[in-house]
Amino acid sequence: MAGYLVGNICGAVILSRLLMRSDIRKLGSNNAGTTNMTRVFGLKYGVATFLIDLLKAVVCVFVCKFVMSTVGGTEAGLFAGYLAGLAVIAGHNYPVLLGFKVGKGFASGIGVLIVLQPLPTLIILSGGILLLLIVDRMSIFALIFFVAEALYSWMYDPAKRLWIPLFVTLYLLLAVIAHWPNIQRLARGQEQPLGIFRRIRAGVKHSQ
Fold first, then answer.
1. 12-35 as b/e, with b when 16 or more CB fall inside 10 Å?
2. Three-state SS for 30?
3. 0.85 cut: is pTM over it?
4. In this predicted model, what pLDDT tens digit does every residue of 162-176 receive, in sequence order?
5. How far is CA 138 from CA 60, 153, 174, 179, 197, in A?
6. pLDDT tens-digit profile of 137-160?
7. Residue among 89, 85, 71, 99 nearest 13 (CA)
8. Is the distance from CB of 178 to CB of 96 less than 8 angstroms?
9. Other residues' Cβ atoms within 10 Å of the Cβ of residue 151
10. Which of 99, 112, 83 is nearest to 32 (CA)?
11. CB 6, CB 56: distance < 8 Å
């Protein structure tokens, strides 16, 4: 329950209301996530949104994992971490405190997996960032990220703990459901590019 409520904290809603005096869920694509914040308000607001959503997941999963490891041992802590991760992503995607309308769980998913399986996550992110610069579609980056994490979890687990790849597959399933409209647009060739290089250049000019 605590993880789910932490997931209800939405960087895009907080920033758009406090700094821009508007609700991002009524602007652009109506999605309260990094991509829509970037398109509507600019790159720096997109980055800030990403960091808030990532850090809430990092803190929640780390605390749950640490506490349960102290109380019940390493295995209990690891299970608690993956369970908290599922709760945070579900809370972000379906937040009861925000009318079940927020984001798609990508940044929160990264935060979860950085804590639970850091090395493969950093490697996957490195490749994913290169992919993003090439395809300029955040939805492709997000989906490839979760697919790669799930494949890694199924292929590599020295202790043969079946529940780990099952949890990560659930993260993937939540990502697919959240990105289903994007998948449909990608299939039709209608998914709009983020324009990341144009936004970076605009940010540099604005700062000069």
1. bbebbeeeeeeebbebeeebbbbb
2. coil
3. yes
4. 999 999 999 999 999
5. 25, 23, 16, 10, 13
6. 989 999 999 999 999 999 987 667
7. 99
8. no
9. 16
10. 99
11. yes
